[in-house]
């Protein structure tokens, strides 16, 4: 059944429409996880810690594609709701061109400045970081098309593209690291080849005649539309940059309180969080174009329905993930760091504590995405900035002073709690403007 953006979404249709996007995000999250598994088990915990130290910087480079994708897809979805198909395709083409140009600039900058921003004592960071940053354009395109496949009403193709990229990464990780023993160099090459598959295949699809709502076509620069899309997607950019900066802060705090073991344990926690967060992010990406379409078409009752259903789904999913994280804390710790008893104990404890944050995480992610879809980037950015940078920074700096190492693991739950208050306040404050309550 091909579900259209203009339809009324029941819970069943909502799940069916978002499932490919959720699966697509889950496949994308495999990159770092597979790299981490092979590096940790075949190279060692020092190299594993090195990869985790440089990963936040690499995510900052890649998330510009996420900004253009989410902000651009909201604009294109709204334009389609206004029945301006030709304009929507011009906007889409501009977003792709912007991603390619910006990706090339960021790739060059990341490669050149990798050594100055890398801890001097960790040479593996430089090797891994330079290879990954050199192919940042493909990484950005993959983020971009994750959003636009949904707008094009082809989420299944987005899923298949991510599966192809993920399988490529897994197979090459096993070959390059376990067989050829290329260490972190092999992990980096496996990831970038997977990203090339995930970024270039969609580009080829949209360049050719296709059956979707979108296709790349000749266009001219429309600065106002580009600026609007980027400003609207700035909340997602802020979320990713903030998360990466906070990740760097977490690593330094963990080095202080637990040394190399703390950084390695945080890597396992982040891999778990990456998978669980992929479900929430996939749902947010999947519902965003639907919300944008109904907003552009003036369907207020549909906006109300989407908000109510989404909040219920996010809460239920969050509770389920907390229970799942508790159940998996021992086997996950064993898979990644079972070779070191002390590191295993630190990791298992961290997973149990960190899991509490998932109850609130999905609601806050959706709240930010909801306002992005309504083309209100200011509110979305405010929620993202406060939850992912301001609150977490304060929490990760202050809580360890009170309760030690465990304070670092509790920091995210405390930050999400305060963010929930902010999200609720904005939803209530803007109800009359958008008529969703």
> How many DSSP H or I helices?
17
Name the shape in a single word.
Answer: globular
On the 0 to 100 scale, the average pLDDT is 87
Compressed to H and E, one letter per element, the order equals HHHHHHHHHHHHHHHHH
Summarize the amount of helix as a percent range.
over 70%
Share in β-strands: under 5%
pLDDT under 50 segments (min length 5)?
A: none
Biggest β-sheet description: none
Determine Rg (CA atoms, Å). Answer: 21 Å
Distance between the termini: 30 Å
Summarize the structure in words.
The protein has helices at 11-28, 30-42, 45-81, 85-112, 114-117, 123-134, 136-151, 155-179, 183-207, 223-232, 234-297, 300-337, 341-354, 358-373, 377-403, 405-429, 431-434. It has 437 residues and is mainly alpha-helical. The mean pLDDT is 87.
């Amino acid at each position: 059944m091909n579900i259209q953006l203009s339809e009324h979404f029941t819970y069943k249709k909502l799940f069916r429409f978002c499932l490919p996007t959720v699966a697509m995000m889950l496949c994308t999250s495999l990159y770092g996880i597979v790299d981490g598994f092979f590096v940790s088990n075949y190279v060692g915990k020092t190299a594993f810690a090195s990869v985790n130290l440089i990963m936040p910087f690499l995510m900052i480079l890649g998330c510009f594609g996420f900004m253009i994708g989410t902000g651009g897809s909201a604009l294109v979805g709204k334009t389609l709701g206004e029945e301006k198909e030709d304009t929507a395709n011009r906007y889409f083409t501009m977003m792709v061109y912007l991603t390619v140009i910006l990706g090339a600039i960021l790739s060059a900058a990341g490669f050149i400045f990798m050594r100055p921003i890398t801890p001097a004592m960790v040479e593996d960071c430089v090797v891994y970081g330079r290879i990954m940053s050199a192919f940042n354009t493909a990484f950005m395109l993959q983020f971009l098309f994750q959003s636009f496949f949904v707008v094009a009403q082809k989420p299944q193709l987005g899923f298949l593209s991510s599966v192809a990229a993920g399988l490529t990464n897994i197979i090459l990780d096993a070959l390059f690291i376990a067989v050829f023993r290329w260490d972190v160099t092999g992990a980096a090459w496996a990831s970038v080849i997977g990203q090339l598959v995930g970024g270039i295949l969609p580009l080829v699809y949209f360049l050719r005649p296709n059956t979707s709502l979108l296709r790349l076509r000749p266009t001219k620069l429309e600065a106002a539309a580009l600026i609007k899309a980027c400003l609207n997607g700035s909340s997602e950019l802020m979320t990713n940059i903030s998360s990466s900066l906070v990740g760097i802060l977490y690593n330094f705090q963990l080095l202080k309180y637990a040394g190399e073991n703390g950084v390695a344990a945080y890597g396992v926690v982040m891999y778990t969080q990456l998978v669980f967060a992929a479900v929430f992010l996939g749902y947010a990406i999947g519902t965003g174009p639907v919300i944008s379409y109904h907003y552009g078409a003036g369907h207020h009752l549909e906006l109300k329905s989407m908000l109510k259903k989404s909040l219920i789904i996010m809460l239920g999913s969050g509770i389920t993930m907390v229970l799942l994280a508790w159940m998996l804390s021992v086997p996950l710790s064993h898979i990644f760091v079972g070779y070191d008893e002390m590191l295993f104990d630190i990791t298992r404890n961290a997973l149990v504590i960190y899991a509490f944050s998932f109850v609130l995480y999905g609601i806050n992610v959706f709240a930010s995405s909801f306002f992005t879809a309504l083309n209100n980037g200011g509110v979305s950015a405010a929620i993202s900035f406060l939850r992912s940078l301001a609150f977490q920074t304060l929490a990760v700096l202050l809580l360890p002073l009170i309760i030690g190492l465990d304070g670092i693991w509790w920091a995210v739950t405390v930050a999400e709690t305060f963010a929930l208050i902010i999200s609720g306040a904005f939803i209530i404050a803007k109800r009359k403007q958008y008529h969703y309550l």
